[in-house]
Amino acid sequence: MSAYWISIYREITDEVKVAAYVELAGPALRAAGGTFVARGLPEQTYESGEMTRTIVIVFDSVDAARAAHDSPAYQEALAALDGGAVRDMRVVPGVD
Fold first, then answer.
1. Could you tell me the pLDDT band of residue 54, with boundaries at 50, 70 and 90?
2. At 30, is the secondary structure helix, strand, or coil?
3. What is the pLDDT of residue 96?
4. Which ranges of the chain would DSSP assign to H, the alpha helix?
5. Concatenated DSSP letters for 51-69?
């Protein structure tokens, strides 16, 4: 069953650290089997929606998403981020 890695940036505190993270995280997550399906600010929000940067990445499974997160390459990206953003991150199973 597919899984969706969803990251919502609640606050960016250091653009330089976020840029360093992006340079490392994208290749690390793609190498781990992730496919970016959405990235950016919402075009429209409803109810209590927030105009915050959102990223959605699809993986083959929850286990694949977990493995991507725990991989040395992604951990290097997290080290580069080093508090440069406050994010809400979650992995949600798909409904295959």
1. very high
2. helix
3. 74
4. 15-31, 62-70, 72-81
5. ---EEEEEES-HHHHHHHH
Q: How many CB atoms lie within 10 A of CB 29?
A: 23
Cα-Cα end-to-end distance for the chain? 6
- pTM (2 decimals)? 0.93
- Percent pLDDT > 90 in the chain is 99
Report the C-alpha gap between 55 and 5 in whole angstroms: 8
Residue recorded with tokens 């781990």: 32
Report in angstroms the alpha-carbon separations of 58 from 22, 33, 79.
Answer: 17, 8, 23
* Mean pLDDT computed over every residue of the chain: 97
Alpha-carbon distance of 2 to 91, in angstroms, equals 10
> Smallest Cα–Cα separation from 68: which of 35, 23, 21?
35
Query: One-letter amino acid identity for 82?
Result: D
Residues 3 and 89: beta-carbon distance below 8 Å: no
